[in-house]
Amino acid sequence: MESRSFNVMDDEKLIEVIRNYPVIYKLSDKNYKDNCIKDNVWKEISQSIVKNVNDCKTRWRTIRDSYKKNLKKRRLGTGSAATTKSKYNDDSLSFLDNIENERR
């Protein structure tokens, strides 16, 4: 697999592929804690976008965390610090909006 940095198109493709695998991002998924299944899913994801698994995982965490941070800032409302504009279309990551943020 290629190990080069991600560009915006790579990011968008990664987001679209991950959207189809809730086991990666949805804590309530019955297989969320099954690392064997998740490892296999990450292999499929990496093959579909021709990047190595670790690069995909790292990039996904960065994208997800950035989106969640910006979403939280927007929810604070008026009087809060200015929000930074996400470089991703909010619609492409909106599937994360109703996902639990933290483990219990």
TrEMBL record:
Pfam assignment, any one: MADF_DNA_bdg
Domain MADF, residue spans: 13-101
Q: Which GO terms describe its cellular component?
A: nucleus; transcription regulator complex
Matching InterPro entries: MADF-dom, SANT/Myb, TF_Adf1
Give start and end of each Myb-like domain.
1-64
GO annotations under biological process? Answer: regulation of transcription by RNA polymerase II
Q: Which domain of life is it from?
A: Eukaryota
Cite the PROSITE patterns for this sequence. Answer: MADF, MYB_LIKE
From the Swiss-Prot or TrEMBL record, give the protein name: Transcription factor Adf-1
| Phylogenetic lineage | Eukaryota, Metazoa, Ecdysozoa, Arthropoda, Hexapoda
